[in-house]
Each structure stands twice: as structure tokens, then as C-alpha cells.
Task: inverse folding
């Protein structure tokens, strides 16, 4: 089973950014935060405040003196960088990296300092490189934004949420029978009101009504509301 990846921040500068990284991690179910030589020291009250509860509620932060120490127990390391390096490395998008990570036993994602990113010595320790496809003219991301992108792709790669779904509240989707009853009643009232001036057009108009209501995927409550509208307009109650 693949363990949740570690997020490794190398020489982060601001406590606030560390906290926002922790918040992004916890949003995506990640709790292993490894901090290498934070400039302003650790622990950090500013980090805790910026984490919005993540550092107090689930994310476990540990401090290391070197990148090598921070990744020593991991099997596969990704280095995130927007700059090309003179190294032979497999390059991944965040999405393909997440898929690759699911096949490894233990994984770490390396993120560099806010101003300079990862140095070559850190990138050399990685098995692969992640580059986030962005506007070629402006690829700069805040470190927490980069963590969010990578962490989200990891989370999404194992999430089973349906790509799209219809929220209907407490009322379910109207059945074919309910739709047929509504269309039948409308047809009857339209007939009484003289709507069908041409008998030849009647089948087409009724079929279009049927298709319209089927396409809208109305709920049972909405079908009932239409019956109420018809009753109000005709002065009749539904039998």
C-alpha cells in the first residue's frame, strides 16, 4: 500500500508560507511535513496562525538539517522546479507524478525556497522532476500554491467523487411515469384550450414536450409544481 507522500520544504523563509503549505496539505489529506533549515527557525507562531488549524489538527512538522536527511527513509523523490537543469531526469506534470507516486511505496515532494527554488544539489537527489504547466511568460508560483497543485493532484488521483452530479435535495428525479402524467395532463388542457389548431402538428408538439421534460431531469417536486401551475391557470384541481 502506498503511504501518503511527504511534503519537504527546503530552506523556507517565512513562517506564514510554511503555515499556508500545511493548510494546503491538510486540505488534501497529507500530514507529513518535513522542513529543512527554516530561515526563521522552528517552531513558528506565524506558521501556526497561517495554517488555519492544520498544524494543530493533523499536520506533523519535523525539522531536518539537510535535504539528504529529510528524504533518507523515502523510496522515490520528486523535485518541483520550473527551471530546466543540466541533468538527465524524467520530467512529470503534477498529474502524471501523482499517478507515478501511487505505484511507489513511499514518496516525497521537494519544494525550494521562496526566492530561488531548489538548488542543483537538491535536484540531483531526486528521482524525477515535476514541472507545472503554466503561462510560459509567467511561471512563478508562491510556494503554498505549488504545494496545493501537487497535493491536489495526489488527492484527486485516489478520489472517487463523480465528475458531475445533480443535486436534487430531498426530492428524487421524476420517474418516466410522472413525466408521462405531466405531459398527458398538459396535452389534455392544451386540447381543451384549442392549442392544437392543426391536427397534423399535434404528435410533433407532444413529442417535443416529452423530450423537453425528459431532458431537464426535473425532480418529483418540480413535476408537482407544474401540476399546481396548470391547476392555477385552468382553475381546476388535479384529480
Result:
Amino acid at each position: 500500500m502506498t503511504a501518503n507522500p511527504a511534503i519537504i520544504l527546503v530552506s523556507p523563509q517565512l513562517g506564514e508560507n510554511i503555515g499556508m503549505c500545511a493548510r494546503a496539505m491538510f486540505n488534501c489529506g497529507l500530514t507529513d511535513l518535513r522542513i529543512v533549515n527554516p530561515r526563521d527557525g522552528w517552531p513558528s507562531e506565524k506558521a501556526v496562525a497561517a495554517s488555519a488549524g492544520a498544524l494543530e489538527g493533523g499536520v506533523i512538522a519535523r525539522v531536518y538539517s539537510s535535504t539528504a536527511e529529510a528524504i533518507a527513509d523515502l523510496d522515490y523523490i520528486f523535485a518541483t522546479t520550473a527551471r530546466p537543469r543540466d541533468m538527465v531526469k524524467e520530467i512529470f506534470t503534477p498529474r502524471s507524478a501523482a499517478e507515478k507516486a501511487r505505484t511507489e511505496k513511499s514518496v516525497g515532494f521537494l519544494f525550494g525556497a521562496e526566492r530561488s527554488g531548489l538548488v542543483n544539489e537538491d535536484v540531483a537527489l531526486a528521482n524525477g522532476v515535476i514541472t507545472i504547466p503554466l503561462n510560459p511568460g509567467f511561471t512563478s508560483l508562491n510556494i503554498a500554491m505549488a504545494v496545493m497543485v501537487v497535493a491536489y493532484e495526489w488527492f484527486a488521483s485516489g478520489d472517487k467523487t463523480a465528475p458531475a452530479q445533480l443535486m436534487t435535495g430531498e426530492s428524487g428525479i421524476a420517474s418516466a411515469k410522472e413525466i408521462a402524467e405531466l405531459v398527458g395532463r398538459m396535452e389534455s388542457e392544451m386540447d381543451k384550450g384549442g392549442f392544437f389548431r392543426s391536427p397534423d402538428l399535434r404528435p410533433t408538439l407532444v413529442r417535443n414536450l416529452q423530450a423537453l421534460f425528459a431532458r431537464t431531469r426535473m425532480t418529483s417536486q418540480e413535476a408537482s409544481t407544474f401540476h399546481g401551475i396548470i391547476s392555477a391557470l385552468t382553475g381546476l384541481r388535479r384529480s
